[in-house]
Write a structure and sequence with these properties.
Beta-Lactamase; Phosphatase 2c, domain 1; 3 domains; seven-stranded antiparallel sheet; elongated; phosphatase activity; Serine phosphatase RsbU, regulator of sigma subunit; GAF
Length: about 525
Amino acid sequence: MRVIEGATDSDERLRGLEAVTDAALSHLGVDELLSELLDRVFELLQVDTAVILLLDPHARQLVATAAKGLDQEFRPGVRVPVGRGFVGRIARDRRPLIIDDIAEETDTSNLVRGGGVRSLLGVPIFGGGELAGVLHVGSVRPRAFSVNDVRLLEMVADRASVATHTRAGTVDRDTALALQRSLLPTALAAVPGVEMAARYLPGHDSGVGGDWYDVFSLPSGWLGVVVGDVSGHGLAAAVVMGRLRSALRAYALICSDPADALTHLDAKVHHFETGNLATVLYAMIPPTRDSIHISLAGHPPPVLVDADDHVAFLEAHTDVPLGMGHPATDRRTTVVDFPPGALLVCYTDGLVERRRESIDVGLDRLRATVWAGQPDEVCTALMLVVGEERPTDDTALLAIRRSGPPPRRVLLDEAFDRAGVASLRRRVADEAARHGMADEAADDFVAAVNEVMTNAIRHGGGAGTLRLLLADDAGLVSEVRDRGAGFPAAAFLARVERPVPSSTGGMGLWIAQQTSRLHIESGPTGTLVRITAAG
């Protein structure tokens, strides 16, 4: 047995270098590259066997991956412990090894003795300065391998290390994809009281990263909503993401406040995930679905769109990310209203950040794109905006809309006084015609709105405001507000002045008869009269 300590260059080495660094090899897949390298080793060194074993670092074993010349003696997946036998010693000592006559060896592995081999040469394969495997060749005739043979085989090992690195990356990517698919379902479960949709867009070739979204029902009936972003990309970030997701679900079962759950999660990151950072949004929505309790750990604030398409970034306290400095104990929860038809859009920064662009530009783009529509349609629209250029970061997106009346579009929103009633009456008539109301129904609706505006002038301080809305489920809706002292609904029905031809009573009863719904809210600051057009 000979251990090689040094060597000299030669023309033969240079010719070998040219053969094993052929640019054409860079276009081959991993398995094809390893096979081609072994073919070239056969030609260059005139050997009878060649084997590549890759290191499993967790088991500290070498795994047979590719071979040539062993025929029936080779079985992929055979494992050899580091330190045991010929290849195990090469891996342990991390230097080349020559055996002139295998008869003097006790190693009986078919990976070594297969094919009637008499002489052996093996070298370690390195990747990024770390051991990646072993490459060895054999001759059926007794042979004294030279220093140049060793150096040439080391060059082949260098090329093999590129393939092993690619292979490891492929395994990591496949593993991370499987992990992420298990954690990010393509369809969210149906939950009473809300509609939901989500998207995940990788920003790197690995196709995976540390961004995630999660929605879960708690035993109390509350709904947990999570969007998070672990720093980094690839398998490492995806693994940390999976741990944080599972831990937060556990903390959600024992914490009734989002800030408390994130405090526990922060402690977990500091103790078990040292060196990692993550931003997380955790919100809880009660069984009534009428509010959002939210805590932000360094995460971008979500967008809340009301049923009238008013868009605003949630004014919630933003605390430090998880894993930053000492564990934070003063995290805060903000409570906001979640009215029927409103849409909550939660996202990671990949949705709004672009290279060479201010974050404000991305936030404005988000604000201009969202509306209180179907969550799936809103998510699709946002993905189209993101997809206009290749993203540089992963993106997780989750949209949740509270079930309720469909969004209403504002057609008119005007203040009026006595002089403005006639003009607004004509505009209401125009909108009724434009939206296809039958002539008789339109006349009744316009007359009813006119009477309510007139009443506001006479009894509501001489002025009022009119909002005309278009609702998908109800057609035209008029809302007239005045600054009168306020009347109960029954009193309003009597106080509308204009009489109907067959009665000396007020127009209020006539309005109630001629419209689909009449709703009155009256209080110290004034009166709201909502009229929904008859179908």
